[in-house]
Amino acid sequence: MTLSFFDQFMSPTYLGIPLIAVALTLPWILFPTPSSRWLNNRLITLQGWFINRFTQQLLLPLNLGGHKWAVMLTSLMLFLITLNMLGLLPYTFTPTTQLSLNMGLAVPLWLATVIIGMRNQPTAALGHLLPEGTPVPLIPVLIIIETISLFIRPLALGVRLTANLTAGHLLIQLIATAAFVLLPMMPTVAVLTSIVLFLLTLLEIAVAMIQAYVFVLLLSLYLQENV
């Protein structure tokens, strides 16, 4: 029983071919195609308003140099939100529960922000490793600590997204299994469990959106330090 709970996180294969590529391609197919018309339907208008508001909030603390990342960060957030939301549907696979995928997104983007900082303003980028006014005996220790914290950032990005989505999916499956088992024995308790399951599903929808936003927000904060 314990192993079956984690079967949902295994990458599905068909004839030995991993289907994670199909799961990663599906969100781009669902996005509406751009139109040259001045007025569109309500869905595309709402989506455009949401993207504009998010981009404005995301780029507010950044200078003009960081605005070049607007398209990439906005596309990444929409991509993650769509993957997380589709993973809540029955009989679907959530690629963002795989640590390898999340690290594959986090490490190159984090490394790009570090390289930009080292190239544009190396003194300021290296200055983050040593706070101003540090006592001389503590300088080697603080440099080691700040360097370790710098390299932990991509790991924290990937693990945070993986852990939150994995925990949510496990809770949903556990409560759904409990409701199914209790239904013939204690219908009243099963109904109450189903209500809890419904509320938890609403919470997981919020978590799916919030975690995508936090992932991109932290990347923008890392970018802010280096531009």
UniProtKB/TrEMBL annotation:
Chief subcellular location: mitochondrion
Transmembrane segments: 12-31, 69-89, 101-118, 138-159, 171-199, 205-223
Key word DNA-binding present: no
Membrane topology listed for this record: Multi-pass membrane protein
Reaction catalysed by this enzyme: H(+)(in) = H(+)(out)
Key words, A-Z: ATP synthesis, CF(0), Hydrogen ion transport, Ion transport, Membrane, Mitochondrion, Mitochondrion inner membrane, Transmembrane, Transmembrane helix, Transport
UniProt-annotated location(s): Mitochondrion inner membrane
Recorded GO CC terms: mitochondrial inner membrane; proton-transporting ATP synthase complex
UniProt-listed Pfam families: ATP-synt_A (PF00119)
Annotated InterPro entries: ATP_synth_F0_asu, ATP_synth_F0_asu_AS, ATP_synth_F0_asu_bact/mt, F0_ATP_A_sf
The keyword Ion transport appears for this protein: yes
Entry GO MF terms: proton-transporting ATP synthase activity, rotational mechanism
Family statement drawn from the similarity comment of this UniProt entry: Belongs to the ATPase A chain family.
Subunit note: Component of the ATP synthase complex composed at least of ATP5F1A/subunit alpha, ATP5F1B/subunit beta, ATP5MC1/subunit c (homooctomer), MT-ATP6/subunit a, MT-ATP8/subunit 8, ATP5ME/subunit e, ATP5MF/subunit f, ATP5MG/subunit g, ATP5MK/subunit k, ATP5MJ/subunit j, ATP5F1C/subunit gamma, ATP5F1D/subunit delta, ATP5F1E/subunit epsilon, ATP5PF/subunit F6, ATP5PB/subunit b, ATP5PD/subunit d, ATP5PO/subunit OSCP.
UniProt-listed NCBIfam families: ATP_synt_6_or_A
Name this protein carries in UniProt: ATP synthase subunit a
Organism: Parahucho perryi (Japanese huchen)
Gene assigned in the entry: ATP6
